[in-house]
Amino acid sequence: MKDGQSPRIGILVVAYNAETTLEKTLDRIPADFRPRISEILVLDDASHDGTFTAGCRWSQTAGRPRTVVMRHTKNLGYGGNQKAGYALAAERGLDIVVLLHGDGQYAPELLPQMVEPLVNGEAEAVFGSRMMRPGDALKGGMPLYKWLGNRVLTRFENGLLGSELTEFHSGYRAYRVDALQKLRVGRNTDAFDFDTQIIVQLVDAGMRIKEIPIPTYYGDEICYVNGLRYAKDVVKDVLEYRLAKKGFGTCDWIPKPVEYAFKEGDGSSHAAILEKMRDLPPGRVLDLGCSGGLFAERLEALGHVVTGVDRVEVPGVRDRVSRFVRADLERGLPDAIGESYDYVVAGDVVEHLSRPGELLAELREVLAPGGQVLLSVPNFGHWYSRLRVALGVFDYDRRGILDETHLRFFSRASLRRTVRSAGYDVLSTGATGAPFWALLGGGVLARVLGGASRLLTRLRPTLFGYQYVAVLTPHAARTIIAGEHIDVQDVLNRQFIPSDVPADRVGV
Predict the structure, then answer these.
(1) Is the N or the C terminus of the chain less surrounded, counting Cβ atoms within 10 Å?
(2) For residue range 149-168, what is the model confidence (pLDDT) as tens digits?
């Protein structure tokens, strides 16, 4: 919405087999509100009756707001119909879009109240709630079992999302179009739980939701919602979201954070590497996959001078590192990083590369004499990934061992083979415990299970270790012969030259 201009308001009417109710519903739009409407979009979701004809007939009557009536050639579903409508609203330059059902279940008389918080900049979304006024829903004819199910599901969803909505299951919605464009609406379900996923997306994005009380109306319209399936789907949605925020599953309709959320002392591989760096003298550090620089910032506080490298530049990273180089490590080390680093940190990096051994070999060229590489990788031999494979439910997660962006998997043995082939000796190898117990919060049970995990990791790291942390140094390639320092690797790389070959013929 441009400053000083009235917003372009659109009404999106989703309709399916609504021939008998559509025109009556549209007639109920307040006359004094109609001049404020830029367009009404009626989307008939491949109805089997005359819904499309009814919409066209209403649109052609004199004095109506500009109305576009469209009929899908195949049924897109409740969510799919909304996706098409919101895309059309953005395409036609609308600023606000109100979702109205063609069966008349939600009161068009309240359209002015629905859009007012959006016009005033008080919210990004407005929901009509049948539960704001106690008792109104039952008085309006909502069946007791639906009322009870609504209340139970809403309380459950609020508890998992940390929200305070009075109702999750109203289909009377108004949105700022630019807010919808920031969400992954196109990846949402096509089913009836589409509205729940929108709520989750709004909450996750920190957008403001305002509710207004609306009347409850149950007439003779046909309900196409399977209540038990709907309840299962909305519960699955919020659980999938909560698990995804902890790293489990992919949840494609919620964006994945770009920045690595490092917390000191959280038991992660980065925390383990930081503890090792505390015992080392300050030096020049190359931090590969530095993300937003949160880890590098702690290294700088210890006196190290850090050059960070990452494929994307997270806002604020240059404030946390001494130098930042943007580069895709899949293409190798960039020339801009220079050389002679005392330490190279590759925390949870090489598993994202198709040829990790090549990058490790390149790192030897930028290390100062006596330099070390501190490396961490997930342990594919952990019981979690073993169990998923054994049960036939292997799939990817948003992060962790089965991160959807991992290209290579490592066991302890394959890690050792990889680093030795790249020209390194392993000075030490350790394992971190699993972070799963963080799902339980900070209670007593979480602490007990976390302690058990750490104990089991020490006893059998190949099964209970979540990540391996290794400290590497290039192979000792120098020896002493008759008091002289000879570089053995250099000798091995030389071409043998017979003693009778003239010096001026060498290399010809």
Answers:
(1) C
(2) 999 999 999 999 999 999 99
